[in-house]
Design brief:
Length: 95
C-alpha cells in the first residue's frame, strides 16, 4: 500500500468518526430522542433533565460524555446494563 492511499484512507476514517461523534453528541441533547438514548432510565421512571426551550447549546456538540464513559468501571456496567453488555465490552477491548 502506498503512502497516498494510506493518507486518504486515514483521512476518510477520521472524518467519518468525527462526523458520527458530532451527530451523537448533538442528538443525545434533543428531548425527542430521549427514548433512544435514555431508554433504561425512562423505563425505570427516572427523570431525564432536558431543556425544553430551543437554545444554541442544544445544537453545539459536547464531548464531556467521553471522560465520564472512560471512568466507568466493570462493576457499574454490570449493575446498570447487565452481563451481556459487559461481555460485549470485554470482547471489544480484547478483540
Amino acid at each position: 500500500m502506498d503512502a497516498e492511499s494510506l493518507l486518504v484512507s486515514a483521512s476518510i476514517n477520521i472524518g467519518l468518526a468525527l462526523l458520527i461523534l458530532t451527530l451523537f453528541s448533538i442528538l443525545r441533547k434533543q428531548s425527542s430522542y430521549a427514548p433512544i438514548y435514555y431508554a433504561r432510565r425512562l423505563s425505570q421512571h427516572h427523570p431525564v433533565p432536558f431543556d425544553r426551550r430551543f437554545t444554541l447549546r442544544r445544537l453545539l456538540p459536547s464531548l464531556e460524555w467521553i471522560s465520564r464513559a472512560a471512568r466507568v468501571n466493570e462493576e457499574e456496567i454490570l449493575d446498570t446494563c447487565g452481563l451481556d453488555v459487559l461481555i460485549l465490552i470485554r470482547l471489544f477491548k480484547f478483540g
